[in-house]
Protein 1
Amino acid sequence: AQKVTQAQTEISVVEKEDVTLDCVYETRDTTYYLFWYKQPPSGELVFLIRRNSFDEQNEISGRYSWNFQKSTSSFNFTITASQVVDSAVYFCALSDRGSTLGRLYFGRGTQLTVWP
Amino acid sequence: SAVISQKPSRDICQRGTSLTIQCQVDSQVTMMFWYRQQPGQSLTLIATANQGSEATYESGFVIDKFPISRPNLTFSTLTVSNMSPEDSSIYLCSEGDGETQYFGPGTRLLVL
């Protein structure tokens, strides 16, 4: 069965600190997609990144970076030099269909608070 | 990416009443999804709505409580029927045709 675990419920950091959000997943599929979404206090779900199971290259986008390791079934998200605007709930998600996107399985989310 | 809008953005309802939430996509999509997010919780899939067929409901969700319509490729509605305070949640629709699933802004529902 598909499952996404975000063990960190809440994280608090001070501005400019680096922070890593952990995500561990379970799936029997050999082809799948992994996602990170950001949910600010306003409630909308903002797409951050998609990674398919065949692409283990790490990715960097500005202050954001993602580390995908199939050997440990992890897809961790690092924010460098955090800012107050990064405060939000971050969700890791898994799609259970290979070539065509299907429903998403979400982790419980990590509430990140960045203090000035 | 598709642009998705939802109406209403929020509502306060009395128990026993029903609310219909609308989801509009700015392009034609085959697959649409409805999720529920209870306070402080993660997102849970209610149902998958494909145009031209009956919605497929997840375990724990039934059509009588959450009827869904999908009249065309750009629009869907979710009705929350005979509401109780436990239905207080954010309801989100999403489209899933491409490689990335995009979400609407959500409907915040409070049931008194």
Protein 2
Amino acid sequence: DQQVKQNSPSLSVQEGRISILNCDYTNSMFDYFLWYKKYPAEGPTFLISISSIKDKNEDGRFTVFLNKSAKHLSLHIVPSQPGDSAVYFCAAKNSNSGYALNFGKGTSLLVTP
Amino acid sequence: GAGVSQTPSNKVTEKGKYVELRCDPISGHTALYWYRQSLGQGPEFLIYFQGTGAADDSGLPNDRFFAVRPEGSVSTLKIQRTERGDSAVYLCASSLTPGTSGYNEQFFGPGTRLTVL
């Protein structure tokens, strides 16, 4: 069963605008959430993370918001740049049951000039 | 410094054959992970090593899959009697020793694309 869900397989945004990528999870024991970015023929690279004790984490153009009651998180990219075009994976972990990351299926973001 | 490397980058084999996939983690990283990414899916956890021992192999799909890390550095994922459903990108990641709290970033290699004909 898919415990981390990214329901939008793709998203297209104009350069300079905001990109919002969404992620839902079902396991209430998840306590750490991450976003990974993946270019073709490369491995995923870590982008930003958030602990369950916070509701927002910001790093430059990237902000992750966590709504625990809704079991929902989102990644905001402002302003979007063409180089941001990639597949974005949401991932979650339960620190009490090991170190494995549970990934969503990914959202392919295209930022057009 | 060098990142995580995986060889081969591509492997084509026939159904029923045996394959080995290699992972060289980042130097100094004691934790090593294998994931499998099937087409249209996110990476799926297979196994986690802390040093030489498999600390968590709960993600291995069946006993045809086995992984070793004899010296606590390089790891080999071994698949016996390959099936067409094993076709996927096999990703390796490494990290510093996970602490009791927080998170140590997992650095991923580029993956090995396995195709079973």
